[in-house]
Design a protein that fits this description.
Chain lengths: 188, 489
């Protein structure tokens, strides 16, 4: 399927998810956020990147993800129309896009490190959200917060499988994306 | 499959030279730190013997430094050994090793600073909630620095394993290929990965998982230290810490054993063969080394019953796999071969024997009925000192002696024979004192011992002095060998 079309579909899905995101932090952080990110990531795969830019793009993408992971940002995206708009713009363009332009093209060890780091940080987030003695998001109930903590753990488990299986088998579960990555890697 | 022969000669040679240099440095550093940590151990045993008056807070600082230092250095030296031999089979990037070394040393500085400047004495396994309950002896900052030191070391190891795992996966068609599972299926020996690759793939899998769990619990501990309202579930933290700790220390010896696979064939003239049993045994190790940690929690009555069963069964299973495969194979390879027994071979074989023997007290303690009486006694240090002092550390010194041996295998010199004999006698006596103490129900981790407990500590102090002197000779021999080889080149 055409990457731009796929990206647009992801963005559309994120908009459709908005009512659910308002009610449920799991849908907000573990469904809408990733779908917005993926919409930019897919576009990033198609864009040529100079090797010197990969590092700054990586830092930009990680910083943007980090910002939107803050409970305060999560709240603001629900309370303020401006922040809601900022979320819809920055998660695809300042998180997904730079990550798509950089992550598939950095060295295998750094890529693996980022994956391992993501897994351990998801574990830490799971701890924080499930053990916090107070409501850390004003917009959601404490039970929802604890469910989100469990969701982070499930996500970590799922990603571990997704990333480990190709490593064990010696080929990727996503051959198309990898082929595109290789093509761009050769071009750059 | 890509092999070393396909790598451009110049690049391969440059990388090999760089690797050899950093590995020699790593082994030299390991030897010196082993010696220093042994001196810490000697001081603690002398204090328990009533021969040295040691401040209690300082005792626990030494205990923490000794534990963290020995676990870290054992795993570090094991990693150096495995990297050296794995580089014979896949093209490893020496820069990654240098980054690993840098992060490891940064971690060591933080850990030592937290202990000797910050006064942290919460033991190497930082069990929740001890880091936060100092009774005023150390500040929160010291405990945080200790955890950050561990995180730095963990990140270094993660980079190390990513490079190892990636290169093995690329060369052998995925980690399953590196583990030898494809060979189990097709049975073609000519396409089987070498034993070192199988060991490296196995350790990469289980220690990477362990490190990720370690990172989670370390960050959670830091959050708890800084914001005590974030209380950790104590049982969950204990599970995560002991899983990480058990896997990490076991990885040290599973990495060091690659020296046995690569060096002993030089003496016997027979290559270490890969068989289906060998591959399956390593596959079992990958699973058992992760599942066996439950035997650390046999006294936690609120753990589920199945975990107690798993802990006990896997304690037995791990020992059987080890003894049946590596110890038995070593004996078979050595039997009947015309061998010149130099220092390196003696130490490597001692390492295999010490490893095998060291598991016996472990699976005795892994029985629930024994564990409820013995687990908090000196019996447990008796177990791990056997498989570390007479196992991993002996292998590391065997590798060190081999590194500086030169091409010709010479009979052991009188000085080397003396050093080896003293190491075996001192080490054997030292671990027996721990086991005797444990069998006498003397508790572990106590700074002050009653007069009735001091005989074992006094004898242990004498044996520890012998070990320290023998180790000093081994380290001096390695450094002398490095200088000699440097001059020859």
């Amino acid at each position: 399927m055409n990457t731009v079309l796929l990206s647009t579909l992801c963005f559309g899905a994120a908009l459709v998810l908005q009512p659910m995101a308002r009610l449920d932090p799991v849908a907000h952080m573990l469904l809408q956020y990733p779908v917005l990110g993926v919409s930019g990531y897919l576009l990033g795969l198609k864009m040529p990147t100079a090797p010197d830019l990969r590092g700054p793009l990586l830092v930009l993408g990680i910083t943007c993800v980090g910002f939107w992971m803050l409970p305060r940002s999560l709240d603001a995206a629900l309370d303020s129309p401006g922040m809601h708009l900022a979320k819809l713009v920055t998660l695809p363009l300042l998180a997904g896009l730079p990550l798509g332009m950089s992550v598939p093209r950095v060295g295998a060890v750094l890529r693996g490190f980022l994956k391992a780091q993501s897994l351990s940080m998801l574990g830490v987030l799971s701890f924080l959200y499930s053990h916090a003695p107070i409501r850390i998001c004003n917009s959601y109930l404490i039970e929802d917060q604890q469910r989100l903590g469990a969701g982070f753990l499930w996500l970590a488990g799922g990603l571990s499988l997704l990333w480990a299986v190709p490593l064990f088998l010696g080929h990727s579960l996503m051959p198309d994306l990898l082929l595109q990555r290789k093509k761009h890697h050769d071009l750059c | 499959m890509r092999t070393l022969s396909q790598i451009p000669d110049n690049a391969a040679q440059q990388s090999a030279t760089k690797t050899a240099a950093v590995i020699k440095l790593s082994i030299g550093l390991s030897g010196v730190v082993f010696l220093l940590m042994m001196i810490f151990g000697l001081i603690m045993r002398a204090a328990q013997a009533g021969w040295v008056d040691l401040d209690n807070a300082l005792f626990y600082q030494l205990l923490t430094a000794h534990g963290a230092g020995m676990v870290g250095t054992a795993t570090f030296s094991g990693a150096a050994i495995m990297w050296y031999f794995l580089a014979r089979h896949v093209a490893l990037n020496a820069t990654v090793y240098i980054a690993f070394l840098g992060l490891f040393l940064l971690g060591v500085v933080l850990v030592l600073g937290s202990i000797f400047i910050g006064g942290f004495g919460g033991a190497w396994n930082f069990l929740f909630p001890l880091p936060a309950l100092s009774g005023g002896i150390w500040e929160v900052g010291a405990a945080v620095a200790f955890c950050l030191g561990y995180i730095s070391i963990g990140v270094g190891f993660l980079l190390y394993y990513l490079e190892v795992g990636y290169k093995i996966a690329r060369a052998y068609g995925g980690l399953l290929g590196g583990l030898g599972w494809r060979f189990v299926w097709h049975g073609d020996v000519s396409r089987a990965p070498p034993p070192t690759v199988i060991a490296a793939a196995s350790v990469t899998i289980f220690n990477s998982i362990g490190i990720i769990f370690g990172a989670i619990v370390l960050v959670a501990t830091i959050v708890n230290l800084l914001f005590p309202e974030f209380a950790i579930d104590a049982l969950m933290a204990k599970n995560a810490i002991l899983f990480f700790g058990h896997v990490f220390i076991n990885a040290s010896i599973y990495m060091a054993v690659t020296a046995v696979y690569e060096v002993i064939p030089e003496y016997t003239g027979k290559p270490w063969k890969v068989s289906r049993v060998f591959v399956i045994a390593w596959a079992v190790v990958v699973i058992f080394v992760q599942g066996v940690y439950f035997h650390h929690l046999l006294q936690d009555v609120n753990m589920p019953k199945w975990s107690m069963v798993v802990g006990q069964v896997m304690s037995y299973g791990s020992s059987v796999v080890l003894i049946a495969v590596t110890v038995y194979s070593t004996a078979v390879y050595l039997k009947g071969a015309a061998i010149k027994w130099d220092l390196s071979l003696r130490l490597l074989v001692l390492g295999v024997i010490g490893w095998g023997v060291g598991t016996i007290p472990a699976f005795i303690d892994g029985m629930v009925a024994v564990n409820k009486i013995m687990h908090n006694t000196m019996w447990v240090p008796g177990h791990f000192h056997t498989y570390l002092l007479l196992g991993e550390v002996a292998m590391a010194f065997g590798f060190a002696a081999w590194l500086v041996r030169g091409r010709a295998i010479r009979e052991t010199s009188a000085l080397d024979r003396f050093a080896f004999g003293a190491y075996v006698a001192g080490g054997g006596g030292f671990v027996l004192m721990f086991l005797w103490s444990g069998a006498s129900s003397i508790p572990r981790r106590w700074a002050v011992h009653y007069a009735q407990w001091q005989l074992q500590s006094q004898l242990a102090t004498v044996f520890a002095t012998v070990v320290v002197l023998a180790t000093a000779l081994l380290v001096a021999g390695y450094l002398r060998g490095l200088l000699r080889r440097g001059t020859e080149q």
